[in-house]
């Protein structure tokens, strides 16, 4: 069995997922002008395999053809960037922030018809994508790593790199997918509903050294075609749609701070977070396969969606095939609503969980009614073909072929004669 591949394959199959991220306290607004970091100068044509771990196929030079397509005529523009080639040490001592930002933002070899990476004010359009790879190591950062549009950030799945915020860290988040510019009244780099084509996976983000309430692991203000996978908090203030899977959150006041129009999340584990999921707002959110293990502390909560007794900013949420233990409150939602009530007004459906439905229910009627209890709503029957052996809706994580070698792949361009694209067989 072989896989067709090229440096472009990950770009073509781009999906955004988070996994193995350390949970963060709720971030505070930082009145800091967010500008493109140019404090490190990258090599003009850096090698593609410096200091790589040989255990993961993506680190091997054979996979770095570095040809961008779709209107980009450059043969020198580096699609693949290894952060070590731009000066990052990963030794647990050196401040690697500037070097990592250089790997993210370098425009070396960019085509003359556009200035290079799509950063501030680019209007979500580019022919200069990038894959930024982190070999194993501990990379210390003291201010945010700014992620340009159309970027995949990937770590070695066999040796998860640690991205560690230093004691002097200043900023909203270690990784920022949509920076705020406070010199422009807090304007974002991108319109959040148009912030597409992003992926992060295989990273361990360590926030244990920063002060309480000073930052998150990832500021993930994104839209469709985005994903987080295999990362160990998240601060998501708004956006429109996406996917997260295989995430781990350890400790902190808030594991994941969520707010977006619609989102799907699965296989997320929260260990000893004061509040595992803070659902700030949504139109509709699915949480599937969630495991919360608390420390039985006062006011500990699995899922919080009760912003105030009078306001309900969370629309609807489905919590399915999940387990919450060791917390005082499994799910908190608001009641006695009098104003600012969305049409779904905090509707919560708990499926395959020994709890109940609470919220505004539409049951074969155009008129909503508030109900609660085990029999408050009829849960649709799930066909057996959709279930696993435990009665849960079948799901699986996206394969990353962690144990694959060079011999397991065919190259779509070199071996298959394809102009672009990749196929697994």
TrEMBL record:
Signal peptide (residue range): 1-23
Kinase is among the record's keywords: no
Keywords: Signal
GO molecular function: polygalacturonase activity
Domain Rhamnogalacturonase A/B/Epimerase-like pectate lyase: 80-294
PANTHER family cross-referenced by the UniProt entry: PECTATE LYASE SUPERFAMILY PROTEIN DOMAIN-CONTAINING PROTEIN-RELATED (PTHR33928:SF2), POLYGALACTURONASE QRT3 (PTHR33928)
Protein name (database record): Rhamnogalacturonase A/B/Epimerase-like pectate lyase domain-containing protein
Native species: Hortaea werneckii EXF-2000
């Amino acid at each position: 069995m072989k896989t067709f591949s090229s440096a472009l394959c990950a770009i073509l199959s781009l999906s955004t997922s988070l996994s193995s991220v350390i949970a963060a306290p709720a971030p505070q607004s930082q009145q800091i002008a967010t500008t493109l970091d140019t404090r490190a100068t990258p090599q003009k044509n850096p090698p593609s395999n410096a200091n790589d771990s040989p255990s993961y196929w993506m680190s091997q030079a054979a996979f770095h053809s570095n040809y961008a397509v779709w209107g980009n005529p450059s043969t020198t523009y580096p699609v693949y960037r290894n952060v070590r080639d731009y000066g990052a040490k990963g030794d647990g001592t050196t401040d690697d922030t500037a070097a990592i930002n250089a790997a993210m933002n370098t425009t070396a070899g960019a085509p003359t018809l556009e200035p290079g990476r799509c950063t501030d004010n680019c209007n979500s359009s580019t022919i200069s994508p990038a894959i930024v790879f982190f070999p194993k190591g501990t990379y210390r950062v003291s201010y945010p790593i700014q992620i340009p549009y159309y970027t995949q950030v990937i770590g070695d799945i066999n040796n998860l790199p640690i991205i560690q915020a230093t004691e002097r860290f200043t900023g909203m988040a270690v990784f920022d997918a949509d920076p705020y510019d406070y010199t422009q009244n807090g304007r974002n780099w991108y319109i959040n509903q148009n912030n597409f084509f992003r992926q992060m996976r295989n990273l361990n983000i360590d926030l244990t050294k920063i002060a309480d309430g000073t930052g998150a692991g990832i500021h993930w203000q994104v839209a469709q075609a985005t994903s987080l996978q295999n990362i160990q908090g998240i601060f998501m203030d708004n956006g429109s749609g996406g996917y997260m899977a295989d995430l781990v959150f350890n400790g902190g006041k808030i594991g994941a701070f969520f707010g977006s129009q619609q989102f799907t999340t699965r296989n997320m584990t929260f260990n000893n977070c004061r509040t595992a999921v803070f659902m700030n707002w949504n139109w509709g959110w699915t949480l599937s396969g969630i495991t919360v293990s608390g420390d039985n502390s006062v006011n500990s909560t699995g899922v919080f969606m009760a912003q105030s007794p009078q306001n309900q900013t969370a629309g609807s949420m489905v919590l399915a095939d999940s387990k919450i233990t060791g917390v005082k409150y499994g799910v908190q939602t608001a009641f006695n609503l009098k104003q600012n009530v969305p049409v779904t007004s905090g509707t919560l459906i708990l499926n395959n969980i020994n709890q109940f439905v609470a919220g505004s229910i539409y049951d074969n009627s155009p008129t909503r009614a508030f109900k609660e209890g085990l029999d408050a709503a009829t849960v649709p029957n799930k066909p057996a073909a959709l279930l696993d052996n435990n009665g849960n809706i079948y799901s699986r994580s996206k394969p990353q072929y962690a144990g694959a070698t060079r011999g397991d792949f065919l190259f779509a361009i070199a071996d298959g004669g394809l102009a672009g694209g990749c196929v697994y067989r």
